[in-house]
# Entry
Amino acid sequence: MYILGIHDGHNSAACLLKDGKLVFAIQEERLTGIKNYWGHPLKAIDACLKHEGITWAQVDHVAFAAFDGSSPGRPFISRDEYLEYTKHVLKPAPRVGFRARLRRVLRPAKAAAVPDRLSFYPPEIAAKGNGVEKIRHHLCHVATAAFGSNIGDGHDLLIVTVDGLGDGECATVNILRANGQIEPQLSVHQAHSFAQIYAFVTVYLGFVHLEHEYKLMGMAPYGRDRDAERLADKLQGLFTYADARWELKTPVWNLNSDERLVYESLREMFEFERFDNICAGLQLFSERFIVRFIQDWIRKTGVRRVAVSGGFFMNVKANQKLRSLPEIEQLFVYPSCGDETNAMGAAYLKYFQLTGKRPEPLKNFTLGPVIDDSTLLDVLKSYGEKIRFEYCEDIEERAADLLSKKNIVARVKGPEEFGARALGNRSILAHPSDTLAVRTINDMIKSRDFWMPFACSILEEEKLRYLKDWTANFSPNYMTMTYDSKIQRRSSQVCILEIALCVLKW
# Structure
């Protein structure tokens, strides 16, 4: 049985589940060349079918990760429309006409006035009839954490999802029972989103929402501790918190409220504050908030095995704080757990609904296409004299030689990894002792800000030598959390205080 999973919001993607096993997945951006592609993943869908060598007739079910999944149709919001909206959220100038237009775009519309969602796709999908299902946004996040996790076998699992917003929610708490049933415990309305505060500050500082939040996380270590503490307390003051629940004192992500209050509160809070201190305060607030929230729910439920998903948990520093909690026995962070993996969550849940069986847990994240030597050779030849190349029998030895001489190496081999993290098969490599490599890669190759760090890759057998907070209960294979390095080994680390780790098994 084949189930096609589709996510068509920002970072759109498609995946294919065969008899409960994830066999292929790819983001649309990898095929269009448009970073953070927002739209219908038509090329990704074609790639799924091509990979398995199947036709539409062999696809049994289609599952959409949906905003407003209960509606037969919904307006398609383009990336430009959404970013224009968030840009105006933080401007004090009157914008009545703009708000009126956005209400028509963002509010659920009558099916008669809005093209049906399926009309954007090949007619073969609509022809599936009852074989097509739209699954709510946060339920897809829940499914990735619940069914993709490799922990909790035979035990209850606490499932926590947190992101900016989706289908009216910003956070949920569920329990995955040992029999595979999901029991809801809590749903937080999106108007009270604490993760959205991270996004608002991103825009306030002049960056792009849904794209540059990680830059603030990268800048946070440069801020002063005393200023971070002070600003974190101010941000906490925006919320009331009691009995493992919270509310934003002035709900903001709600078209019935005046989002200009966000601007006013942020302006009052951050005026004349240093950029790095703002980032540090925001990061500290976020870490404290999520730690307290999950601690409280562990105490309420008694469930100590925890799986998390949703865009907030792309914050590797916050994940490190969770990993350090004595209350948590095991922790699983779904790889690249933003909306791109909701295509997988939709497919997982559909399979469970149809069969009553749990899908196969995630074993690796190299789920994309393989570039064979002949294809790669054709691409290289297409550049003519603009590029020189040679063929090596032992490419690993040659790459190691180049790295030892402080050259920068791009590695392309095997299936492409899915999601936002480079895990070795599509990676830029540099010698960790070459301090200039960080600047070279940031300025000349990645075209990103100077303060952005890079992950240090170490051999698995060396983990105890370099990491002081290593524990076998938490998997580092997907770059989902940071680790502290041992003091005596810091001189040989690429990063001084903390490293985002990917353990590679080459």
